[in-house]
């Protein structure tokens, strides 16, 4: 089954996709994204994906999550058509922000769903129990409106405290949604937030991870 998940909040959508992936054997979950040195998802990436399709699953099902699916170039999308049409016991989640950049032939092979970002009960509970929450919210807003790197850097300590990370990422995403940035700049910051989220899951040093956000912001 193929799903095309359209979202205006890629951080939240990615988080939900990662949560969904926990229902699969970890060896049968594959993450598909553009190469760091490329601006698009190219045929080479899709060829690797197809190779994984053709291998037997460790359990009885596989999951592929394609991040920023709208970055697949035309050749990459065309290359994928036959595979997603014929695959069995496999689920593909295409996460995208721009549905118009997905070929009609891909769309016709997917169930299109619009992801709704909601503040879940866990976040509400974290906010209620964290005395730093007002400062986190204010710092996130100030970070997205800061006119200089020096000003933005003063916001990072409260945001990068380990016990504040979940709330910080949520508030930064909210502040970014309301910020007046060019689309390409906004996307680069969303990507940095997503990478921080993944790095934190891998126990990456939070301070170093937030350096990435600072670079994307300026």
Short description:
By secondary structure, the chain is α/β, with parallel strands linked by helices.
Q: What structural category characterises the helix and strand content?
A: alpha/beta
Number of strands: 5
Radius of gyration: 18 Å
Poorly predicted segments: none
Counting structural domains, the number is: 2
The major pleated sheet works out as: 5 strands, parallel
The fourth-level CATH homologous superfamily of the largest domain is P-loop containing nucleotide triphosphate hydrolases
Encode the helix/strand succession as letters. EHEHEHEHEHHHHHHH
**CATH architecture of the largest domain, please?**
3-Layer(aba) Sandwich
First-residue to last-residue Cα separation:
40 Å
CATH topology name of the largest domain: Rossmann fold
| Spatial arrangement of strands, main beta sheet | 2-3-4-1-5
Assign a percent range to the helix content. Answer: 40-55%
Description:
With 218 residues, the chain is an alpha/beta fold. Helix 2 packs parallel to helix 3 and helix 6 packs across helix 9. The protein is built from eleven helices and five strands; from the N terminus they run E-H-E-H-E-H-E-H-E-H-H-H-H-H-H-H. It folds into two domains: 113 residues, Rossmann fold (3-Layer(aba) Sandwich), CATH 3.40.50; 96 residues, no CATH class.
What keywords describe this structure?
218 residues, alpha/beta, Rossmann fold, five-stranded parallel β-sheet, globular
């Amino acid at each position: 089954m193929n799903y095309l998940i359209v979202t205006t909040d890629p951080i939240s959508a990615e988080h939900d996709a990662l949560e969904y992936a926990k229902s699969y054997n970890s060896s049968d979950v594959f993450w598909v994204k553009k190469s760091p040195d490329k601006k698009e998802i190219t045929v080479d990436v899709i060829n690797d994906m197809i190779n994984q399709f053709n291998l037997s699953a460790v359990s009885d099902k596989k999951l592929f999550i394609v991040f920023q699916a709208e970055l697949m170039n035309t050749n990459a999308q065309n290359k994928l058509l036959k595979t997603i049409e014929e695959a069995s016991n496999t689920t593909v989640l295409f996460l995208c922000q721009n549905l118009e950049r997905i070929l009609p032939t891909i769309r016709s092979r997917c169930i299109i769903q619009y992801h709704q970002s909601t503040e879940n009960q866990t976040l509400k509970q974290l906010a209620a129990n964290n005395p730093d929450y007002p400062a986190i919210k204010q710092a996130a807003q100030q970070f997205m409106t800061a006119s200089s790197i020096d000003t933005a850097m003063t916001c990072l300590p409260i945001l990068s405290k380990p016990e504040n990370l979940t709330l910080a990422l949520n508030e930064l995403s909210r502040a970014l949604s309301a910020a007046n940035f060019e689309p390409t700049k906004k996307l680069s910051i969303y990507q940095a937030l997503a990478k921080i989220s993944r790095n934190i899951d891998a126990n990456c040093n939070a301070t170093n991870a937030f350096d990435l956000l600072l670079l994307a912001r300026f």
